[in-house]
Structures are given as structure tokens and as C-alpha cells.
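R.M. (postdoc): so does anyone remember the format we settled on? I'll just put the C-alpha cells first.
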């Protein structure tokens, strides 16, 4: 489910996994749990709006990475595609 250690696509695979966990999931947290990022309930809508903007930004990066390819790594299905499916649903 991952490129071999000596496969040139392994770096993109690992970079993508880190991006999903640190950028995309963080944006979802802002959207779904704004109370964790603000001091008062009045500020929650602002945090949620920022999360939604960040989600659009992260999905644009993913769209660019995939382009017209079938999978994140091109023609190779990997665990990164499963992770992306989980994020998209």
C-alpha cells in the first residue's frame, strides 16, 4: 500500500500523508470544533469560517496534485488514496 523505500514516489507519498494529517484534518477541526480554537462562543463562527476557507485551500492543493491522474501517485493505488477517500466522505 506504499511505495518501496527506494522508489522515487515514496517521498511524495510520505509528504502527502503528512499534509493530510496536518493541514486537511486541522481545517476539518476548525470547521467541526470551532470551540476548541476560540475563547468565547461568539468567536466560534469566525473560526468555523476560517476552517471552511482553509478546507477550500487544501482541496485545491490536492486537486492540483492529482490533476488528471487516476490516483495520488499517478497509476499506483496507495494508502494515501484510502486516506483521501476517508477525508472526502
Amino acid at each position: 500500500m506504499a511505495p518501496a523505500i527506494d522508489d522515487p514516489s515514496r517521498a511524495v507519498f510520505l509528504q502527502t500523508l503528512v499534509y493530510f494529517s496536518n493541514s486537511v484534518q486541522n481545517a476539518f477541526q476548525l470547521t467541526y470544533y470551532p470551540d476548541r480554537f476560540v475563547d468565547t462562543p461568539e468567536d466560534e463562527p469566525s473560526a468555523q469560517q476560517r476552517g471552511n476557507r482553509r478546507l477550500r485551500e487544501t482541496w485545491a492543493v490536492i486537486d492540483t496534485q492529482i490533476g488528471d491522474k487516476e490516483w495520488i501517485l499517478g497509476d499506483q493505488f496507495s494508502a494515501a488514496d484510502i486516506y483521501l477517500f476517508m477525508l472526502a466522505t
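R.M.: ...and that's the designed sequence above, right after the C-alpha cells. Also worth knowing: The mean pLDDT is 95. The longest helix spans residues 10-32.
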